[in-house]
């Protein structure tokens, strides 16, 4: 006895409409049944399409269905990459091959629904890992910003020299040092080593310092002495060396 495909197909359509009464839409009856069933992940909200994935599975019965595969297509995908569409179709073709000879639309829809939920879970996990990675990178960048470059003695001295050179501090310090240098005359006038040597000479000669007579008239005209500025400005000038 031959199989009545039209009757079998009509019976399946009736059963599917009772199961998917809100998700199913009958598109055509002739020459073959064509209908769509919407599937979506649990998080999906048609009013707010930011979360979850959804699509329509469009089925068309072939003349000898279910002894031959039905035609399957995906329409109106939401948050589904093109790769996901291809992968879902491949998954459904595999299920079709496993169910040839039996009414299979319910099995196809259930399997596609499960596949979609798994892909969305993978997507959420990937997004969470990406957020964690970016957070760690931001924290690491912030830590490095406060940590800065470790300072060594060599790097500090190099930095200080460059800083003083660029700000003019080095030139100013050198100028101040030059202005503080004493002339030959100034060195001679403030040299106390001669005083010490004279006192030492007197003590060795057995003279008492209290008995030393100073002839003050010898120093009355000292202001009239003319000292050679060239010699006095010579840092290497030694008093009495020219005698």
Automatic annotation (TrEMBL):
PROSITE patterns: RWD (PS50908). CDD domains: RWD_RWDD1. It comes from Ceratitis capitata (Mediterranean fruit fly). InterPro entries: GIR2-like (IPR040213), RWD_dom (IPR006575), UBQ-conjugating_enzyme/RWD (IPR016135), ZC3H15/TMA46_C (IPR032378). The lineage of its organism: Eukaryota, Metazoa, Ecdysozoa, Arthropoda, Hexapoda. It comes from the Eukaryota. Residues 11-119 form the RWD domain. This is (Mediterranean fruit fly) hypothetical protein.
């Amino acid at each position: 006895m031959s199989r009545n495909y039209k009757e079998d197909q009509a019976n399946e359509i009736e059963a599917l409409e009772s199961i998917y009464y809100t998700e199913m839409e009958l598109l055509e009856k002739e020459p073959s049944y064509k209908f769509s069933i919407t599937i979506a992940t649990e998080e999906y909200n048609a009013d707010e399409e930011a979360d979850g994935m959804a699509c329509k599975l469009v089925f068309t019965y072939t003349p000898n269905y279910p002894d031959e595969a039905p035609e399957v297509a995906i329409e109106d995908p939401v948050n589904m990459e093109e790769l996901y569409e291809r992968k879902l179709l491949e998954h459904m073709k595999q299920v079709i091959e496993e169910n040839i000879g039996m009414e299979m639309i319910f099995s196809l829809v259930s399997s596609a629904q499960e596949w979609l939920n798994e892909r969305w879970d993978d997507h959420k996990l990937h997004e969470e890992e990406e957020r964690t990675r970016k957070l760690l990178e931001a924290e690491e960048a912030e830590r490095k910003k406060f940590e800065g470059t470790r300072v060594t003695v060599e790097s500090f001295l190099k930095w200080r020299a460059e800083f003083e050179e660029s700000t003019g501090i080095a030139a100013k310090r050198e100028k101040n040092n030059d202005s503080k240098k004493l002339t030959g005359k100034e060195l001679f006038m403030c040299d106390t080593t001669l005083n010490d040597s004279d006192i030492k000479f007197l003590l060795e000669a057995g003279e008492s310092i209290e008995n030393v007579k100073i002839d003050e008239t010898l120093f009355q005209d000292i202001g009239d002495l003319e000292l050679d500025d060239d010699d006095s400005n010579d840092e290497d000038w030694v008093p009495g060396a020219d005698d």
